[in-house]
Amino acid sequence: MPDSTLSPARTSWKLPAKLSPIAFAFFMSGIMAFLMCLVITATNRGLSDGYLSAVLEAYRLAMPVAFVCVMAVRPVVMRLVKLTVKS
After folding, report:
1. What is the spatial distance between Cα 77 and Cα 25, in angstroms, rounded to a whole number?
2. How far is residue 54 CA from its own chain's centroid?
3. Contacting residues for 42 by C-beta, under 8 A, at least 6 apart
4. DSSP state for residue 50 in the 8-state scheme
5. How sure is the predictor about 4, in pLDDT bands with cuts at 50, 70 and 90?
């Protein structure tokens, strides 16, 4: 049996539950911004050489903007859902 005093304590990488709205906003904005960059870049310039580079360049701006927007409109969306869904 290994000596537990020699091995480092196992720490959890998970965020506390109270940060769920921020984690949700981060992942939702990241995924949606990337998908939108893929579509808009393809629409504007086609799937030519340098397509992926152009997508990633657009994503550098789109992701932080999308994150701030999701955080800003979250209360409005929560209110709209509350008004439209039976509880």
Report:
1. 12
2. 20
3. 51
4. T
5. low
